[in-house]
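User:
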Amino acid sequence: MFNFKIYLGIIAALLLTCLALAGWNHSLKGKIEQLNKDLVFAKTQELISSSNLDACNAKIDLQNAKFEEIALQNEKLKNAGPIIKKEIETRYKTINVPIRDAKCEKKLKFYEEIFREMGR
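Assistant: Predicted structure:
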């Protein structure tokens, strides 16, 4: 009889241990699910950050290309400076008004220059 009570005690202890382990397993299962959700959220945030970084890099590359284009246009303008200066000098040179007692050729040249400038 004494053996029987010992066996019952051992069986009861094993049952309690099994129930405790089942409860602990259930608790850990919930923690694992929460950690999996957190991991998925972190990976999603990483993907979003990566895509934002790619978009920013693309915009920076576009701006750099525009800067290079502007620099090239600036160089072309600097190289064309003497040509533009010469054109401005010829276009806006002063037209000398003939004096009152000027000859006919000077007056004719004056009026020709005026009409030439107005024709541009």
